[in-house]
């Protein structure tokens, strides 16, 4: 892998808690900071295209994401995305040939102690370098086929469909 393209869409990984509003909002992308702090030994470019909770991502947003990735020369792509509709977006990105695309995110904001963000990003970085072209989801320490996984909202984790 010469260079990793990172495209950010928002989601919990980038959420910030605002005390004065008593709610969460999508903040600046955290992936660049995470990769720098981990001291990765490869170049990466971050393209922030959305700042949305994944429940608010539209078909037009998914098309923008697909077109953005397809237009870039990079063949190794990591997408940070909210977990609720990550599978839906992965299915749209499957139309892009010749690239290894990994979607990842976090069940807790990256700025929070004990967040799964760094672990998921590390899993995604390993996956993007070792898997053949295609689209995958990296969550909960596993690499998932988007056609065979779902988010179990009650358990707050990803699981195999039928599992």
From TrEMBL:
<dbReference type="InterPro" id="IPR006034">
    <property type="entry name" value="Asparaginase/glutaminase-like"/>
</dbReference>
<dbReference type="InterPro" id="IPR037152">
    <property type="entry name" value="L-asparaginase_N_sf"/>
</dbReference>
<feature type="domain" description="L-asparaginase N-terminal">
    <location>
        <begin position="4"/>
        <end position="158"/>
    </location>
</feature>
<protein>
    <submittedName>
        <fullName>Asparaginase</fullName>
    </submittedName>
</protein>
<dbReference type="InterPro" id="IPR027474">
    <property type="entry name" value="L-asparaginase_N"/>
</dbReference>
<dbReference type="InterPro" id="IPR036152">
    <property type="entry name" value="Asp/glu_Ase-like_sf"/>
</dbReference>
<dbReference type="Pfam" id="PF00710">
    <property type="entry name" value="Asparaginase"/>
</dbReference>
């Amino acid at each position: 892998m010469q260079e990793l393209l990172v495209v950010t869409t928002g989601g919990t990984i980038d959420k910030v808690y605002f005390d004065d509003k008593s709610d969460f909002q999508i903040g600046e992308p955290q992936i660049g900071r995470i990769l720098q702090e981990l001291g990765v030994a490869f170049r990466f470019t971050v393209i922030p295209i959305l700042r949305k909770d994944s429940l608010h991502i539209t078909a037009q947003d998914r098309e923008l994401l697909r077109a953005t990735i397809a237009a870039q020369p990079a063949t190794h792509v990591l997408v940070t995305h909210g977990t609720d509709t990550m599978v839906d977006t992965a299915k749209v990105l499957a139309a892009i040939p010749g690239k290894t695309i990994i979607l990842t995110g976090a069940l807790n904001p990256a700025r929070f102690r004990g967040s799964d963000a760094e672990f998921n990003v590390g899993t995604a970085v390993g996956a993007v370098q070792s898997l053949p072209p295609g689209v995958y989801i990296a969550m909960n320490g596993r690499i998932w086929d988007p056609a065979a996984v779902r988010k179990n909202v009650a358990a707050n984790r990803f699981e195999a469909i039928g599992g």
